[in-house]
Design a protein that fits this description.
The chain is an alpha/beta fold and 323 residues long. Helices cover 37% and strands 11% of the residues. The protein has an eight-stranded parallel beta barrel, surrounded by six helices. Helix 3 runs parallel beside helix 10 and helix 7 packs across helix 8 (212-219).
Length: 323
């Protein structure tokens, strides 16, 4: 289904009733639509975040089968360093069996470091990797994870991103490793989004409070895949944008729909003391995904999903690397 056909077939929430009452919305502007797609076709993929270990991943996969929720990517937030080799291997094998991309976070980062500035009102240096040792820890995580078969790495620091992109070009990590920028460091303007692409990002989380116009502005500057929480956890604002999913896709494609969960305590860094909470919230994230997909279907906007198993971002622009 083409983009134009999808837009023509879809209806907006409440549209028939509001039109009958003389309250119909203005026609959509075709110029607002993103012209970009994923390689191989499709304008949106799905992601279930906060899969903190093999048990949580197993819950997600079981619930996805039960509710018939297609998943392109699962991601983890605590970090490679919080998992044993055996746990990583189990997750790699489980994801590969379902042809799902597994993305693990590189750490450490500012929130768990000694930098007290992250707890001030200004947030100081934020979630960056502080100093050479933190950068080295992220690289160590990346090398270890990819040696165990992980193909996607989450980063929250521009220097880590650029370093891992150079490592990818140099063959230190596999060339088909994808690098994903965390929502913890998401750009809020088109120039910043384009910089992350040039630094090596293969998909970029944007904050869930960006407006529809913001997405259109970004798409005029970059075609790199965008990740966005349809429901954001409370520490990222707790926004719920379920009724906007079709328009988010129209404006933001190629777009990963991330199914987070508000009104729940944070679970990073994960440990077994958080087991019950982590497993129950993992299950509910899949259900939230089913709700969003059902809504798209009711509005006739569920076409153009990227093929299951697709993971690569297509041709992207990069800065020149040092010789």
């Amino acid at each position: 289904m083409t983009t134009d056909a999808s837009a023509a077939a879809a209806r907006r929430p409440g549209e028939p009733a509001l039109t009958a009452l003389g309250l119909g919305a203005p026609a959509l502007d075709p110029a607002d639509a993103s012209p970009h797609t994923f390689p191989g076709g499709g304008r949106w993929r799905t992601e279930i975040p906060s899969c903190e270990g093999p048990e949580a991943l197993a819950v997600v996969l079981k619930e996805a089968s039960r509710l018939d929720v297609p998943i392109h990517r699962v991601s983890q937030g605590s970090g490679v360093w919080m998992l044993t080799d055996a746990e990583i291997t189990e997750m790699v094998e489980a994801a590969a069996e379902r042809d799902i991309e597994l993305c693990l976070f590189t750490g450490p980062r500012g929130t768990w470091d000694i930098g007290g500035s992250t707890r001030t009102d200004s947030r100081g240096a934020g979630l960056r990797a502080r100093g050479h040792d933190a950068l080295a820890g992220c690289v160590e995580d990346a090398v270890r994870a990819t040696e165990l078969g992980v193909k996607c790495l989450l980063v929250a620091d521009e220097g880590v991103l650029w370093t891992l992109h150079r490592a990818r070009l140099a063959g230190i990590v596999p060339a088909d490793t994808t690098l994903k920028v965390s929502a913890l460091a998401g750009p809020v303007n088109p120039a910043a989004f384009a910089v992350y692409e040039q630094l090596g990002a293969d998909s970029v989380n944007v904050p869930s409070d960006l407006t529809l116009d913001h997405l259109t502005e970004i798409r005029r500057a970059s075609g790199a895949p965008m990740d966005m929480y349809i429901e954001a956890p409370d520490d990222l604002g707790g926004y719920v944008r379920m009724y906007e999913v079709a328009e988010l896709i129209r404006r933001g494609a190629p777009l990963y729909l991330k199914f987070g969960l508000s009104k729940t305590p944070g679970i990073y860094p994960y440990g077994h003391h958080l087991r019950e909470l982590t497993l129950s919230t993992a299950k509910e994230r899949v259900r939230r995904g089913r709700l969003a997909l059902d809504l798209l279907a009711r509005h006739g906007a569920d076409g153009d999903m990227a093929p299951p198993g697709s993971r690569l971002p297509g041709e992207l622009r990069r800065f020149e690397t040092p010789a």
